[in-house]
Amino acid sequence: MNDYLKNKFKVWWLGSCYIFLTSGFLTTLYIYFVKRNIDIKEILLAEFFGAVTVSLIIFYKRKWHTHHTFWLAFSLMAIALLILFLPLPIKYLLILYTAVAYSGTILFFVPFNVLFFKEGNKSKNLQHITFYWAIMIIGGIVGPLVGGYLLASVNLIYFVLVSFLILLFVVCLVKYLPVEIYLVEKKKLFSTLKGFRTITILDGALHKVNTITIVILSLQFITNAFSFGKFLSLVSLVALVFSWQTAKISDRLNQRMFFLWPLCMVTGLVTFSLYFATSFYLFVALALVLKALTIMLEPMRSNILQDKADKNNPLTWISRELFLNSGRSVLWLTAFVLWYFNWQSLLFIIMGSLYLIFPILVRYKNVYVAKSIIPAIN
Description:
The chain is mainly alpha-helical. It is about 80% helix and about 0% strand. The termini are far apart.
C-alpha cells in the first residue's frame, strides 16, 4: 500500500490539506484576537513581525531537506497554536502567534513549489499555475466554513485539538513525497533571480494587498467566527469561477501583457474604492469583485518566473520566497504606520497604485515582448 501511494501520490494533495488547515483554522483565529480587543493596526504590526521572521529564516537557512522543511513548517504551526494558551497579554500573544504561524505557513511553500512546478508543461505554464491557485481556492472554500463553525461552537482547546489532528494527518502524508536536498550559497540566493528581483518584491506586496483589503478589513464588519468563515468561503467560491478560462486564453495567445494591463488597472481602481465602503453590503460587493479580479491576475503575476526563469532550479523558488517576503514586510510596515496615524486613505491609494505600477515594471524590464494578437485569435 505504501509503495502504491508513493507512486500515485501528487504533491498538490498535500497542498490541498495544507490550505484547508491554514485558511480554516489559522486565518479564522483573527476573530479570536478581535474579540479580545485587538484592533487592525495591531494585526498589521504582528503580520510585519511575521514576514520579517520568515525572511530571516530563509536568509540564514543553508540546507533545505524537503521532508525536514515540511515537518519544520507543520511543527511551527503546532507551536503557534500552543502559544495561544500562554499566560501573556493578548498583544504579545498576537505577535508571538503570528510570527511563528507565519513562518510555518511560508516555509511550507519552498519545498512545495519546487516539487509542484517540476511537473509543469511549458506550453501550459499559466494553466498549471492557475491550477496551483485553484488548489488554494478550493481549500479556501471548505476550510473557513469548518474552522469558523468550530471556533464559534466550541471552546478554544477543542478547536486546537481538531487542528492538531489535521496537522498529524498532513504530517503523515509527507513520507509519500520524494526526498530532495538543496544547498544554498548566500551569493546565489540573491543572484538567481537577477532581472526579476524588483518584480518579485512588488508581487510579494501585492499578495498581501488582498489580505488587508478583504480579510483584515472585513473584521470591521464581522465579529462572529462562523460569519467570518462563511464570508471567506464565499469570496473563494466566487474566485473559483473566474480563473481557469483566462489562463487558457492567455496560454493560447501567449500574450500576458494583453491581459495584465486592463486587469491591473481595474484591480487598482477597485482596491482604492474599498476605502469608501462604509456599509457591509457595499464592502462585500467590492470584495467579491476584487477577489474575482485578483484570482485572474495572481497566476499571471506569479507565472513570470515560470515563463522566464529556470523553474526546475530549486534556488529559483527559495530566492523567490525571500524577495516575496521582503515586499510583504515593506507593505505590512507601511500599512501599520499609515493606520496608526489614521491615514487609511493614503494606504488605499498606495495599494491601488501598486497594481498600476506592476505592468509598467514588467514592460520596463522587457519581460514580455508585445506582439500582435490577431493571428493567434484567428
